[in-house]
Structure formats: C-alpha cells, structure tokens
Amino acid sequence: MRASCGQPYVRAMTNIASTDTRTELHTRPPSTAWLRILSLLYDPFVWLAEIAGMRRQRSALLGNARGRVVEIGAGTGLNVAHYPDGIAELVFTEPVAAMRRRLTRRLQQHGRVARIIDVPAERLPMADASVDTVVSTLVLCTVNDPKGALREIARVLRPDGQLLFIEHVRAGSRFLAACQDKLDEPWRRFAGGCRCNRATTELMGACGFTVAADDAVWRGMPPIVHPLVVGRATRPSGWLSTRWSSDRPGGSNE
After folding, report:
1. For residue 46, is it left (φ>0), alpha (ψ between -120 and 50) or beta?
2. Structural domain boundaries, residue 118
3. CB 230 within 8 A of CB 165
C-alpha cells in the first residue's frame, strides 16, 4: 500500500526488501551490445511520454534540488535541462558507457558543468553524509540490488538531505499487477533490466525512509509502466553510518 497523495509515512523493516530482491540478484544482466542499442533507442522511445507530461514532472521535481546533488543512473541526461542554476555541485552516476556518451553530449548542448562517474547506484563513491540531494528518476526499477542502492543513498545523504524521485511501480489494480508479473521478464530483457512490477515505495519504507509521494501516470508509455510515484524521501531517523556502511563493499570518501 502506498501513502495517499502527498501524505508522508514511515514503514518499518519488512520482508519485502529481502524476499523480492533475493532472486533478482541472480538474474542475468542485459548484454553490453543490447545496452548500446538501447542507448540509441531510449530517447525516441520515451519521446511521446516526455511531451505527454514526464518533462513537466521532471521540471517540477528538480526545481527542489539543492546543494550538492547526485543523480543516480542519469542515462541519456533527460534531466539535465531541468536543474536550477543555484546548485552548488552536480554529479551524475551512470554505469553504461553508451549512456554516458549521450549524457556528455547533452551536458555540452545545455552548457552545464557537471561530473560524470562510472559507478552503479549500489556503490556510490561519496563520503558518509556528504550529499544534500539524491535524484532518482526511473532508476530504482532497474538497479540489480534496490535495497543496496537505497542503503547507499541513506549513507551519503546529510541528516537534512533528500531523495527526489520519479519511479514507476507495481500497480494497485490486481489486473494490471497480474499483467506486470506476466510480462516482467520479457520487459526486463527489452528495457535494459527494468522491473515493471517492483514495489519501490514499499522498499523505501522497508529501508526506513520517510516518504511523501503522489501517484501519477506515465502517459505515452505501455500500460505496464503507467503507475508512477513522484515525491521526496528523507533519510532514516536515528541513522548511524556504521549501520549502513558495515555491509557496504567499499568506496572512496569524496
């Protein structure tokens, strides 16, 4: 169950994060060749959806970014144009080389100064409590270990930091959720590892985040990815760096 529109909630640790992701960790990743092709297809594929409302959603969300900003899984850079000018530092992470090349070109087109890092969301090379804003737009559906990615986000966020997100999620409709389950594997293979039925807001809550989210629809896209949540999450209260970094495989301290 998601929070009602705009209402924050706190979810205690549940079995969701452990049971839903355990089998995904052993799923074969997309091939490098297909990811290269996907980097060329992605912008044309979502073009209608951007016009139909996603571009407006990005702009409204990213207007709230502040301080040192880290965007995970930046892809081809569709968020680049929507960041406000007053940001202290902008860092993009993107583990796919073909996506990074397109991201670099988009930064040049918009005259933005930013750093691009080749790392997955599960291994952010930032020091504990060093980031003001983490941005995730249509990314947590794709990361191989969403629980690990959320732990990393919690680790790098400052106590007053925020996670700004747009994510497609598991449908509330039983029929659409059943369709997502049926088509999850073929969609994952086509969409570069994307899980159309991932319960991302529940995972955020299971990792201790306080989430304020609105339901939305990803218009112009296949129905199995229509359900969206758009909002802001804050770091788990009482967070201790040792709690989150004890099982982290490592990283630098920027």
Report:
1. alpha
2. 8-235
3. yes
Phi, psi of 55 (to 5 degrees): -60, -40
pTM of the model: 0.85
Alpha-carbon distance 197 to 142, whole Å? 11
Instruction: Give the Cα separation of 48 and 53 in Å (integer).
Output: 9
| Cα(152)–Cα(73) distance, integer angstroms | 13
Q: 191 near 221, Cβ under 8 Å?
A: no
- Three-state DSSP at 154 gives helix
Q: With contact defined as beta carbons under 8 Å apart, do 196 and 186 qualify?
A: no
Q: Domain for residue 247, yes or no?
A: no
**Does 113 map to a domain?**
yes
Question: In this predicted model, which residue has the larger pLDDT, 239 or 59?
Answer: 59
pLDDT digits (tens, 9 = 90+) for 102-118: 999 999 999 999 999 99
Residue 241 lies in a domain: no
Is residue 124 domain-resident?
A: yes
How many structural domains does the chain have? 1
User: What burial class does residue 58 get, using C-beta atoms within 10 Å of its C-beta: 0-12 exposed, 13-18 middle, 19+ buried?
Assistant: buried
